[in-house]
Amino acid sequence: MSKFGTLYVESDSFFHRMEPSLKVLIFVLWSITVFMFLDLRVDLVLLALGSVFLLFSKIPFRIIRNLFIVVLLFTLTNALFILLITPEYGTVLTGSTTNLFYGLTFETLFYIFTLSLKYISLLPVVMILIFTTHPSRFASSLSKLGIPYKWAYTFNIMFRYIPDIQNEFKTIANAQAARGLSIKKDEKSIVKRARNLFNLTIPLINSALARIDKVSNAMDLRGFGKYGKRTWYNFTPMRKVDYAVLAMTVIIFLMFLLFRIYSNTRFWYPF
Amino acid sequence: MTKIVFQNFSFRYRNLKEPTLKNITLDINSGEKVLIAGQSGSGKSTLMHCVNGLVPFAYDGEISGKLFLDGIEPYEESLFKVSKIAGTILQDQDSQFIGLTVGEDVAFVLENEMTPLKEMQQKVSECLATVDMLDYINHSPYELSGGQRQRVSLAGVLSSQSEILLFDEPLANLDPVSGKNIISLIDDLHKETGKTILIVEHRIEDVLERSVDRVIVIDQGEIIFNGKPCELLRTDTLKNAGLREPLYVEAIKYSELKLEDDHKLDDINNCDHDTIKESVTNWFEDKLPTEEDFDTDKVLSVKDINFSFVSNTKVIDNVSFDIRKGEIVSILGNNGAGKSTLSNLITGILKPDSGEIVLDGEVINNLSVKAIGDKIGYVMQNPNNMTVKHMLRDEVTLGLRAGLEEADRFNFLNRWWRAKSKVCENTIETKFIDTIKKCKLYGYRNWPLSSLSYGQKRRASIASVLAREPRVLILDEPTAGQDYSNYSEFMKFMNELSGYGIAIILITHDMHLALEYTNRSIVMSDGKKIADDTPANIFSQEDIVKKANLRETSLGKLADVIGIENKHGFIQHFIDFDRERKR
Amino acid sequence: MGKKLSIFNFGTKTVVTISIGAALYGIIGLVGIPIGPNMQLRPAIVILTIFSAFFGPIVGFLSGFIGHMLTDILAGWGVWWNWELSSGFFGFFVGLVYLAKGFNMKYGLFRVWHIIFMALTGILGFVIGYCFAGFTDVVIMDEAPRKIVLQTVIITLTNSIVFIAFALPVVLSFLLTNKKNSNLVIENQ
Lengths: 271, 583, 189
Ligand SMILES: Nc1ncnc2c1ncn2[C@@H]1O[C@H](COP(=O)(O)OP(=O)(O)OP(=O)(O)O)[C@@H](O)[C@H]1O
Ligand SMILES: Nc1ncnc2c1ncn2[C@@H]1O[C@H](COP(=O)(O)OP(=O)(O)OP(=O)(O)O)[C@@H](O)[C@H]1O
Ligand SMILES: [Mg+2]
Ligand SMILES: [Mg+2]
What we know:
The complex is a heterotrimer.
Chain A: H1 14-17, H2 20-36, H3 40-57, H4 61-85, H5 89-94, E1 99-101, E2 104-105, H6 106-121, H7 123-132, H8 135-144, H9 149-178, H10 190-221, H11 240-262
Antiparallel strand pairs in A: 1-2
Helix pairs in contact in A: 2-7, 2-11, 3-6, 3-7, 4-6, 8-9, 9-10
Chain B: E1 2-13, E2 21-29, E3 33-38, H1 44-52, H2 54-57, E4 61-69, H3 79-85, E5 86-89, H4 102-112, H5 117-130, H6 146-158, E6 164-168, H7 176-193, E7 196-200, H8 204-208, E8 214-219, E9 222-227, H9 229-234, H10 237-240, H11 247-254, H12 274-283, E10 298-307, E11 316-324, E12 328-333, H13 339-346, E13 354-359, E14 362-363, H14 369-373, E15 376-379, H15 392-408, H16 412-417, H17 420-438, H18 454-466, E16 472-476, H19 484-499, E17 503-507, H20 511-517, E18 520-525, E19 528-533, H21 535-539, H22 542-547, H23 554-562, H24 567-582
Parallel strand pairs in B: 3-7, 3-8, 5-6, 6-7, 12-17, 12-18, 15-16, 16-17
Antiparallel strand pairs in B: 1-2, 1-4, 8-9, 10-11, 10-13, 13-14, 18-19
Helix pairs in contact in B: 4-5, 4-6, 5-6, 6-7, 15-17, 15-18, 23-24
Chain C: H1 12-28, E1 33-36, E2 39-41, H2 44-55, H3 57-75, H4 81-95, H5 112-141, H6 145-180
Antiparallel strand pairs in C: 1-2
Helix pairs in contact in C: 1-2, 1-3, 2-3, 2-4, 2-6, 3-4, 4-5, 5-6
The complex binds adenosine-5'-triphosphate (ATP) (2 copies) and magnesium ion (2 copies).
């Protein structure tokens, strides 16, 4: 975790330099595209595109690999559940049955494969958004999308206090353990451990409530919310490249939209 | 021109029965620099909040009388309007750092004022340069020491251009040298800009080091002194209000000199006045200090411990020492020297990379925090991290209960029938009353913690640890933000505890505390132990003093000014005399 | 006494409340005590409940939504907005009690029916939130409906239990102590 307590990875790449609000927009349009189809071809295209993006983003391979493992595990268990609970669902979707063995159908397998790829194809843009966006630039950039600055500033404060709260959680847990109230394995009784854990929420909430007062006082004292607008210390103007990317994004999205309108079934099953 | 005018002003917090500020009448002129002193809980912060508008906009309550700020009545206006006039540095440093980086934090006011980007960047650099922090412009708050954060908040109010600056305990938690630097910084600022400045501080001596136009002393919500510092120091007002006089003033007074108008006590350099010289020299009986020797068993040994947060930067570098039974030891050192880290290692919260920690002959590094906590009590730097419960009573008894339940675990039948409750509750209650009496919180026993002042909260967190009767007690800056009467009561209490054989480790930035109350000081700098000796010996070693940002107290300075050679003996004489007096 | 801020007041304090609420909910969302396959006792629910009761449905909704997003991101799961919205729904529904007459967390004012109301709206919040998440999973992610129904039922049940068994008592303890926090005097006898 970076010094900001978020997952931002310090580096310099095409995506690090890209306007954050544009990344948000790409993320939203990308997701909508994924949601529009249950189509292996679309998933594969997006996945290919996403992989190219990731190559350009300079996110360390180790991080990408770990995240892929998590999502892979998720899709595998998900697949297992589907097989156990609704093994006939592929037939429901396609209307045909190709029995492989023990009630397992080819249709269902194909469906599960498409679905898993659909999950995975969401991943690259999320990663780019999370790992290449500097928290300081995020809020000021959101306000460019027309979001009022007070709403946008929520993210700044959140990023500011994430590490504080993490540390606080650890400190409080330790201070309590030193007084005999442990949440770790050295408390044998699981009931007590649970009770101590839930007990911890009280100082956390109390200190959060106190912090809300102090922080909002400090902000008020420095004139936050005085005017309908404010300037941003971290403001960076949109560059030509950003406009070009914006245009490209919209065009590609429109192409997918057209494709969706002209293809008549949602689930693509060529057999 | 008068800048701030209080007329018969009173304020009562919504949830309190009695007003916290009572009939305050006070004029503060434009361009004045004023020190506000008073016991913990006397209403200093509340007074500040009335000026900066937090009362009543953030703290609900009842106001009577009038208050004018630059001709306007703040409580009739909006907080924004007030904030334009008065800039504040709050008592709590952590939460007022709002930006993600130093630069952003300083820019915060400017952003809200819609300052154009170019101008903003320039101003931010200027303000940071003024406080000598320009190199840190892209650092996040976690990469700064306490003193550095203090500087950043100073830069923050600089950028706001307000006419009045309020400082609520700007020195709390700073080491002596950093504290001195901040006071000089404030003073330079005052001289350069002519702003009106109000400082609330318990470290009166440190603030008075640079000239102050006026001192106001508050006691239980009322003003009991309002005048020039030299007048204040001539009288016994501070002492009577339970506050600490500057040490050199105390020494002069002990010499029973009849103080006249031409004794300008507010500046130590003026103390070379002949009558002072004569009187103090007469008072001082030059004799060789007797070495107290301590030869009891050791309880705690730290052996060659090393620790680093990130690889290859050692935060604790090969530290070893022993703590004996009933000993009071102070750990001194500059901000960021590794003192808190060291106590986290001893209490098992952090695990050393190498080395051993031995308690009563048993190696404890591998025990859990909980197991170590049965024997070593630890009071952390920030009281808010320690409290779990809403009410003072529940908080102090919580640890007791955990302990008793443990002991009760095998007493199956009792537990089943809950018959233990009566006996248990009685022991708990007596222990509770006992502890909070010791910690001077008896009057507040039915209060929720949220309504206590910061200093009171500190004592509450100490009470909750003490109730568990530890063998070794580690206190991280227990006297920060405490007034003198609490402080000396508290230290007396520490003495009592050590009499029972509890070893006490105090982490402190208060040099006189180390001298007066501790038999031994361990000095840390850059993660290394650079000295382990009696406090008096340490202060006579210049290189160590310098390395660890320590400072000799004003007693040493006084000895210099009036030409006493045996500084050591002089300080010891003062301490002995002081003890005798208090008995 | 007992005046409450309008839930549509969007001042500094609301901004700060939402962000700190979200940060807290997000981080505590990462801890849990496993009690069975795919089931956890999550203390985060307590936090969201208290925040909603203190500050109302809008703060509850946003803290829940943004906070859950934070949990997913910090845990390395990516962004699953429909499940994250379900936390928002829960925050919104338990927060409704804020609007009820005579209820005030800050001053400890409440009646028994407020607590019952909270219990019902909280469970309703889970039901609506998870039904929404499940439904969107079926519609946009093309998940198998029967599987989703089963998942939804299980998750609603476990969370409702934590909510009733842990979150409501904590709410009650906050209410009771805040009630005592008035007319304080220093008793020296
Ligand atoms: N928010 C609050 N609600 C109720 N009572 C309060 C509040 N803040 C302070 N008080 C009470 O008002 C009194 C004065 O508190 P204040 O914080 O002004 O003291 P102080 O002089 O600044 O003390 P310290 O030196 O410990 O900071 C205390 O007795 C405290 O109990
Ligand atoms: N969690 C952490 N991660 C990384 N570095 C840390 C951490 N905590 C402390 N440090 C660093 O370790 C060093 C020692 O810190 P520590 O808190 O022990 O200082 P200290 O002597 O207690 O200072 P102070 O007098 O300001 O309380 C500092 O340089 C600090 O920046
Ligand atoms: Mg104060
Ligand atoms: Mg420290």
